[in-house]
Amino acid sequence: MPQLLIIENERRDVEFAKRSAEQSGFSSAINTPSVEAAHALLEKARTEGQDLPDAILLDIDLGAESGLEFLRIRFQRPWLMNIPVVVWTRLGDHYREVCSLFHIHGYVEKSAGEYELNEALQSTVQQP
Length: 128
Prior knowledge:
Layout: E1 3-7, H1 11-23, E2 28-32, H2 35-47, E3 55-58, E4 61-62, E5 65-66, H3 67-75, H4 78-81, E6 85-89, H5 96-100, E7 106-109, H6 114-125
Helix pairs in contact: 1-6, 2-3
């Protein structure tokens, strides 16, 4: 059953993302509010032989942190590059090109709505 890691610091957006994950075929969704917490969770899972998430939903604007830092960390760790990342942000389309340099799976502006987010998440579950 596919699992989603949500890197998001806004409670309202976390709840929205969890509903979208469920509608998109994910059996569970775990939230971490920061890049540091997400990195620690993933490192722990890897070193302890636990399952890694099947996809990651990442907000670029994490308050005092930037989700771009997570993309940088992911890019430097080949074992993380196999996990598709969907960027979901309010920061607008001008970040799309920067994010694409990090080989993300999808980019959805939060203003686009539920349908677009569901489609992007479903496409990570349907990957071969």
